[in-house]
């Protein structure tokens, strides 16, 4: 082997790691129990095998020659499958997929709900929805698809493997894993790790966390990884697999420490005493919670929005049928997998963003009413409504165009290497763990203002410790505390926030999510600002009842027929989820078709919210009439 760096010099490090991490962050926010195990894990694997592999057979191109992207759950299943390069290759051959590799890095880590991607999905899946995935008990749930298409060949094993990225992302939630200089160092260490495999091919090597990030990103680029393996591992004996897979993932918790220790010893001996791990590259176990997922977190009471199923009573039988049919003896059916922490960061960001959206408007950009109890209650209520909506596949980061995911980006200034690998003052290096300040530093500059004040609430000072109060005058400063964290810093705010959440959750479960949004949101949000589109009637919501300004059914802004100047679609008739003056299936406009909406139609639901008047209930809401 020549220079390891030369052998892998093609790797577009910053871009691909950013894309990879965005996908993992989005996966961590998947609602109703998540994608690491359970019903939606096996469904994702089934949808991937039945439908996405059919798309791969033709590799159609979208607008401007762009590669077609899968929905989030299928994108994750595809990524997990590619982590076993030899197994993936043989499975694709058996399925008749001649070109199994992603067309480019965008397709390797991308996911979408755009019209072009939905259209290609529909060609192979028919009425089986692209996004959100069909609910348990629906006409296209796991059990019905098995009856219609037969038992899948690879889905169960694939669902079992979906657990791994939870514990990996947990460690990668520290901001320095998005630092350019840190990744450059990791690149060099990964090259040495490859050489170590050549020297000890029989050993199950366990990567340090920085090496693992490079390795798993590389595996996602399956064609490039295969090319690299062919070059780098040409010295291996014929009985050694050329496509090296991360076998360390299959080690039990009891086996892992010893294998990691042996890998560290081999690495240090091979490279002149160079330390294998330090506090920046060591793994963090699940016993150390991410700060926002800890019991004392200001958003702890809201995290159940992603784990609980508001329709569990109605869907339990269908979930049990799926487990009986595909889950007998399979870990995916019974494993309880903790989330990585990105779910908590996302819900904190989401609630803060929506609360600020209302607060800035209600206070004339922080000029007046900044201490109003009513304003504070309504800002909190608006944030809570977005959190509850996530349980219905709304307000999720379902596309990399989402502002939260765009802020998950590799950049500089998040890490500074010490020559000794220890703090500059000579003190012992701290044990690997999280800092409360991590919650304010991980996202890029465009979204950091929404997180300012979190570190202070979590007890770490962070940027918010020197910040002005949320209502501290017009204009504010760069370090001004975000309104939500100022509100939640007040006495008894935690109990009020929890009560508001429970009330909103109960209303949505008893009626529908659109009615809850109308009651608890006090200012409409533009769904299109998130790059997310809501079409027609799904198993979770009817788009024409949702409480958005634009971006739901009544404003099909991704329709290619839309006038870019005024947003109107003037051609009659619509596509699936169309719109304009008269809508097609799932339409919109002045008069709607099936699942319509738009200027006329829509289930009402009005009123209150936290502190607001009006019907529909809410925390402290009054009687009839409309809320704010």
From TrEMBL:
Region of interest (Disordered), ranges: 417-441
The cross-references to Pfam families, in alphabetical order and at most eight, read: GRDP-like
Extent of Low complexity compositional bias: 417-427
Looking up InterPro entries in the UniProt record yields: GRDP-like
**What name has this protein been given in UniProt?**
Uncharacterized protein
- Which organism is the protein's source? Chlamydomonas reinhardtii
